[in-house]
Design goal:
The complex is a heterodimer of chains A (442) and B (334). Chain A is α/β, with parallel strands linked by helices and 442 residues long. Chain A contains 16 helices and ten strands. Chain B has 334 residues and is an alpha/beta fold. Chain B has helices at 3-17, 41-45, 57-69, 88-96, 98-101, 131-135, 148-160, 182-185, 212-226, 244-254, 269-281, 303-309, 313-323; strands at residues 21-25, 50-52, 73-77, 111-115, 141-143, 165-169, 197-200, 205-209, 231-235, 238-240, 257-260, 290-292. The longest helix of chain B is centred in the N-terminal third of the chain and has 15 residues, at 3-17. Classes of the chains: A alpha/beta (442), B alpha/beta (334). Chains A and B meet through β3, α9 and α10 of A and α3, α4, α5 and α10 of B. Chain A: This is Pyruvate dehydrogenase E1 component subunit alpha.
Chain lengths: 442, 334
């Protein structure tokens, strides 16, 4: 582990070491750090907590065993191991590959269509597109069960699609139609689907992280307090590099590790927070290193390679599901478009964009599948054609769907609208059939 | 029964009745609560349901909201509501707006509670009333108990409610004792959200107040009674939803209104009540509405200045007399 702790920051002294042909990836360094091997097992540290509760006993046991290996290992190790074991030498089966490919194509085609629709005035406000980052959403979310939760940011369309929210419902939401997944009340940055356990797009930096941590807390609570013994639901929190300088990130890394919550913190490090370069904003740009600082594994992975993302995701999700606690995963990725469709995107170097465009995660997967005879060109074309139809259908559906009715304006402010008050006759105002017909007093 | 015991017993009973209810905050467990509201709960319910958190308002408030999304019923204690400023994003953006943004898919049954407003001698940053702030936000219900009956009934209602509730207590009331009926002590006791209580009936002037100011208004009413003025005192209990009907019915009877609050005057609770009465009962008013509020300054530390900065009983008495056209000497602060 000396390699990780003695890792020199001087490598990042130059403002942008990314424009060349070398990847930003730190592959040559061991990108995994096991906190349990290096945390000093100082019992005096815990000494003053006379009645230390929670899982103090097990914690001490872990600290006492310096050789315990965590379930998550370095990406390169996983990949190597897999290669050695597997008779086919492949990282993915044909069936899995096709599912992954389809999901990534859906994400890309959907977002491209959003851009078109935005410029045609069909959607409005802030629209943040996901192009380029598909390997992260697909690589992680496709491994989840329906009961697992996803918490996203303002860049949430593709997370919603990966989690299974139909393209029609997402597109309709973007069109502000009543058939949208939130009946047009949420919008681009606020996708929710209770059915799919997509619990929000959160528009503010850092806001989703505590909420996701709370969702993970509820899994643990259900298992331990409500005695739902088979509740092993995992929560994924997606956020970007800019968020990793926000206090809520640190607050929640601490509490998630402290309480061993079933959560994976997935950093989509696309290098840019609107126009603020990650290198210019962050004292130590290696985000994954912050995991070990809080007592959880930190993993760095090439976020332009969906197969590598999947391997890391499998380990991290499995670890959470087994009750072994959180993991911080830094996915090195890139957005192919501006921050939002309103962003002129003038600060990013064209050479940098070209470098990452050449590493398009969809092209890479396609190449891998064809080279390894997992799929034929024709099969992949068929998927692309099918997705084009899905997206076209979503647009048609959204376009034809009705706008929300006037009466919808005042609905859903409260789960219990008795909150709107009790009338002089002792009846709740919301029981008045005319209640939603005008601007009611609240 | 003290207000502290009322809150403690309400928490205890609701935790006992529903295993989904849990308490989270700073010093709520081993320390038994910074103001001892959660005394004994850790021993009774264990550290899984009475969670001591690190000093991370944004973090633990958001965690509570996320847990509520999945159907748990968190009670989040702020050591004081002044600290809720560190977490206001989660109260407003993550809690209050989610049910609407998700078109009713994500209800957020959570209670944010703790002492609000001026304590004594703690200076500007620890002496702020947030009633009008939270009450201006759709999606939140805002409650402010005065007596032990209020504290028990409203906290139980808040915990059982499926929406986010901001529950504003007052540190100086925690130790006060109020008589309670057997009904109030029953574990099924609950006070409806959105309904004000007429604490004292009267016919000459209406005084609205909430939290600690209800006590001041009642004292003022006693003084006024000796001088032949019959004041009706309304304990708002619920700041949002605001019981406009009770307020307006009272004003239509007395034709005069004095609003009392500790918070700042501009865009305050009194301003909202005034607007409601002007809109609904303008023709019934026989005198301009009198608005008693905290001075429009950050809370000073010096005891004499602090006293001048918050409404006093005599301010209420003077305002009521003015409303009733009794001549009174000019007030310095009111």
């Amino acid at each position: 582990m000396a390699s990780a702790s003695s890792f020199s920051a001087t490598k990042f002294a130059q403002p942008l070491p990314l424009n060349g042909t070398t990847s930003r990836s730190h592959d040559k360094h061991q990108s995994f750090f096991d906190p349990l091997r290096t945390t000093p097992s100082s019992s005096s540290f815990l000494g003053s907590t006379r009645k230390l509760r929670l899982s103090s006993a097990s914690k001490l046991k872990l600290l006492a065993n310096p050789n315990r290996r965590s379930a998550v290992v370095a990406v390169s190790d996983v990949v190597k191991e897999k290669k050695a074991k597997s008779t086919t030498n492949l990282l993915i089966t044909k069936e899995e590959g096709l599912v992954v490919y389809e999901d990534m194509i859906l994400g890309r085609a959907f977002e491209d269509m959003c851009a078109q629709m935005y410029y045609r005035g069909k959607m409005f406000g802030f629209v943040h597109l996901y192009n380029g980052q598909e390997a992260v959403s697909t690589g992680f979310i496709k491994l989840l069960k329906r009961e697992d939760s996803v918490v996203s940011t303002y860049r949430d369309h593709v997370h919603a699609l990966s989690k299974g929210v139909p393209a029609r419902a997402v597109m309709s939401e973007l069109f502000g139609k009543t058939t949208g997944c939130c009946r047009g009340q949420g919008g681009s940055m606020h996708m929710f689907s209770k059915e799919h356990n997509l619990i929000g797009g959160f528009a503010f930096i850092g806001e989703g992280i505590p909420v996701a941590t709370g969702a993970a807390f509820s899994s643990k609570y259900r298992r331990e307090v409500l005695k739902e013994v088979d509740c092993d639901h995992v929560t994924l929190a997606f956020f970007g590099d800019g968020t990793c300088n926000n206090g809520q990130f640190f607050e929640c890394l601490n509490m998630a590790a402290l309480w061993k919550l079933p959560i994976v913190f997935v950093v989509e490090n696309n290098l840019w927070a609107i126009g603020m370069s990650h290198m210019r904003a962050t004292s130590d740009p290696e985000i994954w290193k912050k995991g070990p600082a809080f007592g959880m594994p930190g993993v760095h992975v090439d976020g332009m390679d969906v197969l590598k993302v999947r391997e890391v995701a499998k380990e991290a999700i499995g670890r959470a599901r087994r009750g072994e606690g959180p993991t911080l995963v830094e996915c090195e990725t890139y957005r192919f478009r501006g921050h939002s469709l309103a962003d002129p995107d003038e600060l990013r170097d064209p050479a940098e964009k070209a470098h990452y465009a050449a590493r398009d995660p969809i092209t890479a997967l396609k190449k891998y599948m064809i080279e390894n005879s997992l799929a034929s060109e024709a099969e992949l074309k068929a998927i692309e054609k099918k997705i084009d139809e899905v997206v076209e259908d979503a647009v048609e559906f959204a376009d034809e769907s009705p706008h929300p009715s006037r009466s919808q304006l005042l609905e859903n402010v409260f789960a219990d609208p008795k909150g709107f008050g009790i009338g002089p006759d002792g009846r709740y105002r919301c029981e008045d059939p005319k209640f939603t017909q005008g601007t009611a007093h609240v | 029964m003290t207000v502290r015991d009322a809150l403690n017993s309400a928490l205890d009973e609701e935790m006992s009745a529903d295993p989904k209810v849990f308490l989270m905050g700073e010093e709520v467990g081993e320390y038994q609560g910074a103001y001892k509201i959660s005394k004994g709960l850790l021993d009774k319910y264990g550290p899984e349901r009475v969670l001591d958190t690190p000093i991370t308002e944004a973090g633990f408030t958001g965690i509570g909201v996320g847990a509520a999304y999945h159907g748990l019923k968190p009670v989040i204690e702020f050591m004081t509501f002044n600290f809720s400023m560190q977490a206001i994003d989660h109260i407003i953006n993550s809690a209050a707006k989610s049910n609407y943004m998700s078109a009713g898919q994500m209800s957020v049954p959570i209670v944010f509670r703790g002492p609000n407003g001026a304590a004594a001698g703690v200076g500007a940053q620890h002496s702020h009333c947030y009633a009008s702030w939270y009450a201006s936000c759709p999606g939140l219900k805002v409650l402010a108990p005065y007596s032990s009956e209020d504290a028990r009934g409203l906290l139980k209602a808040a915990i059982r409610d499926p929406d986010p509730v901001v529950f504003l207590e007052n540190e100086l009331l925690y130790g006060e004792t109020f008589p309670v009926s057997a009904e109030v002590l029953d574990s099924s006791f609950c006070v409806p959200i959105g309904k004000a209580k007429i604490e004292r009936e009267g016919k000459d002037v209406t005084i609205t107040a909430f939290s600690k100011m209800v006590g001041y208004a009642l004292k003022a009413a006693e003084i006024l009674a000796k001088e032949g003025i019959s004041a009706e005192v309304i304990n708002l209990r619920s700041i949002r939803p605001l019981d406009r009907d009770t307020i307006n019915a009272s004003v239509r009877k007395t034709n005069r209104l004095v609003t009392v609050e500790e918070g700042f005057p501009q865009h305050g609770v009194g301003a909202e009540i005034c607007a409601s009465v002007v809109e609904e009962s303008f023709g019934y008013l026989d005198a301009p509405v009198e608005r008693i509020a905290g001075a429009d300054v950050p809370m000073p530390y010096a005891a004499n200045l602090e006293r001048l900065a918050v409404p006093q009983v005599e301010d209420i008495v003077r305002a009521a007399k003015r409303a009733c056209y009794r001549s009174v000497p000019m007030a310095a602060a009111a």
